[in-house]
Amino acid sequence: MNAPAQARSSSHTDYVDVLIVGAGLSGIGAAVHLGRDCPQKSYAIWEARDAIGGTWDLFRYPGVRSDSDMHTLGYAFRPWVGDKAIADGPSIRDYVRATARDHGIDQRIAFDRKVVAADWSSAEALWTVTARDGDGGEHRIRANFLFMCSGYYDYENPYDAGFAGRADFAGPVVHPQFWPEDLNYTGKRVVVIGSGATAVTIVPEMAKTAARVTMLQRSPTYVVSRPGADAIANGLRKILPARAAYALTRWKNVTLGRFFFRRARAKPAKVKATLVKWVGEAIGHDTAAAHFTPTYNPWDQRLCLIPDGDLFEAIKAGKADVVTDTIEHFEADGIRLSSGDLLPADIIVTATGLRLQVGGGADFSLDGAPIDFAKTFNYKGVMFSGVPNFAITFGYTNASWTLKADLTSEYIGRLLNCMDAKGARVATPIASSDIKPEAMLDFSSGYVTRALDYLPKQGDRMPWKLNQNYPLDRKILRKDPVEDGVIAFTSPKTPVENAA
User: Fold this and answer.
1) Fewer CB within 10 Å: C terminus or N terminus of the chain?
2) What is the pLDDT of residue 497?
3) Are 77 and 2 in contact (CB under 8 A)?
């Protein structure tokens, strides 16, 4: 694969035109887009960890895999050619690293750079970004544009449900985010607390060797089985070039996903009945009714995807089961439930969710004054009102993350080129005073509701609405004029010259 012309890149200079934060799926994709669309721009990538891959390098729990198909989770510019559409974590990590290597990006990343602060200087039209390394040393770089591609989860501090009596449990209590390499669960009784994507991944994988694995959930989640391999995609690759086959499969999956989402919102009761029926056919209608019938409507929270019904197969084989109850407290040999029953366990896995954060948890300021993102409005799902030369990759909740990441990177390239054409060094979305604030995410998942107080807001009209709509975002971010009368283009009165 031939790499396109690369933007001038630096990891160790004092100044760059664009600083990309994060070398995961989003950050590597952003660098490829920047090199293609803005070859005149210098850039650097700062990564907090010591490896490329982001989420897919961090998470090492058993069975870790994608919760979206790789034909949409993969990059638009790089076909996914693996046989499995629902891919395992190591395969995804290899895909991201190969992309970085093939585009010459892997040699241009500064690792062990945890961004802790960024201050914008209006006089200079520059961000001064401060990072800390693992030894406590500080590193600074100045950039005209700051592009955060670090995701929206706090990877250092997951959500702690605060279970009573945790210290009383005699065995290990493990959070999937910090999975110990030497954890031996062969022949052990395991309780996995949670019912989200992580839990439904871990349970069938651990059940292969554990004595028994119980998924303990407070409330049910919608679980949908689909083939791990996409037969149409694999068939198309036999008769078409890889790029053509990938593009067709990508649009097929986007279209099917959009159809299902719209139908779920239009006819929630009917879709709910269908989903529960499918589970009933897989593991028995009594089990489906008791443990797989949520109280909320489909897509009020993200659906859990399982490949080839692996969770259902583990349940049918008697290697796994599901208990729906609440926790009273931990005891030495298990979990005491509110019903009074004791759920015996040798190992407890707390798949209780992650914690959201904005901008990787760094402190952001404008001319020394702290930025309160909760008081800003999302702009086109990319930037924020009143915050100049700043963007965040924020993926979809109802579709693959990378669909939005690709569009975000394309838009940033268009914005930077528009700024150059106008001779402007600053681009700032300006919100009018009559915009009514709404919650950033229309989602009832716990990790979202816990974060609403500090997340940015969306407005009651475009371009301040956060779309969960890939076709619409393609038009807005790829086709609509960058100059929309909302984003202001300016330059400091006394430009500061920088040697890139």
Assistant:
1) N
2) 46
3) no
- Residue 224 has φ and ψ, to the nearest 5°, of -120, 130
Within 13 Å of residue 466, how many CA atoms lie on the same side as its CB? 26
15-156+355-490: CATH superfamily: FAD/NAD(P)-binding domain (3.50.50.60)
Alpha-carbon distance 155 to 59, whole Å?
10
Domain ranges of the chain: 15-156+355-490, 166-350
pLDDT at 446: 64
- CATH number of the structural domain 166-350: 3.50.50.60
- Pairwise CA distance, residues 19 & 136, whole Å: 21
Which tokens sit at 239? 């008769």
pLDDT of residue 3: 39
Look at 4 and 250; give whichever has higher pLDDT: 250
Name residue 215's beta-bridge partners: 192, 322
Q: Distance between the two ends of the chain, CA-based, in angstroms?
A: 29
**Are 427 and 498 spatial neighbours (Cβ–Cβ below 8 Å)?**
no
C-alpha to C-alpha distance for 291 and 287, rounded to whole angstroms:
6
Q: Is 166-350 the same fold as 15-156+355-490?
A: yes
Are 164 and 39 in contact, with CB atoms under 8 Å apart? no
- Residue labelled with tokens 């929270």: 301
